[in-house]
Amino acid sequence: MSLRGIWDRALNRTSGERGAAAVEAAIVTPLVLALVFGIIELGFVFKDYVAAGGAVRAGVRIASANPRTSTYATLAASSVARTGGAMNLRDVQQLWVYKVDTVTDKPIGFTDFANCTVCVKFRWDNGTKAFVVTSDNWPASTQNACSSRSLGGPPDRIGVYVQLKHDSLTGLVFDTMNISESSILTLEPMPFVGACS
């Protein structure tokens, strides 16, 4: 076989392989892009979950450390706003500081987070860049912060709940998703007999 024949056969094989590579790229590229965008999307969802979890834990620490103080819920909401800076606070749909049912670990009278009756509810005000009270059904004066059963204890348990709407960045996997987190602590016991309940 001549050198010219070998050269022609090599060129024919290369052009055929180019066509196969183009077909493979057309099939694989959308899958790789979908995988990359899915990973990015899940990264943003995870960021909001972590931010919401950290915010409610910070809020409940402040609320539990201020029993029977009239500003306990407002202090907790302010702590949620400071700590939850990684999430978009305008997307917060609900923020509650609530009395915890000792059996269900949910708001008093409910087995889920459908509502709360003994709680303080907040909404985000974009003008003042702060949470404002929309409903207050748990006055600080009704909290039990006694340290022992003989004084009327054990202390009440307090929770902070946040729900935020996470909008999809790409719209490939979902359009919007609700992210909710809660955290519970016991009110710090007060040593004063007359002031703890």
Could you give a quick summary of the protein structure above?
The protein is α+β, with helices and mostly antiparallel strands. Helices cover 38% and strands 22% of the residues.
Describe this structure in words.
With 197 residues, this protein is of the alpha+beta class. The protein has one domain. Helix content is 38%, strand content 22%. It is built from two helices and five strands, in the order ααβββββ. The chain has a five-stranded antiparallel sheet with strand order 3-2-1-4-5. The protein starts with a helix and ends in an 11-residue tail after the last strand.
Kindly list the characteristics that best describe this protein.
5 strands, alpha+beta, 22% strand, 2 helices
Strand order of the largest sheet: 3-2-1-4-5
Radius of gyration: 28 Å
Termini separation: 104 Å
Number of discrete domains: 1
**Class derived from helix and strand content:** alpha+beta
Poorly predicted tracts of residues: none
What topology emerges from the helices and strands here?
Layout: H1 3-64, H2 72-83, E1 92-99, E2 119-125, E3 130-136, E4 157-167, E5 176-186
Antiparallel strand pairs: 1-2, 1-4, 2-3, 4-5
Helix pairs in contact: 1-2
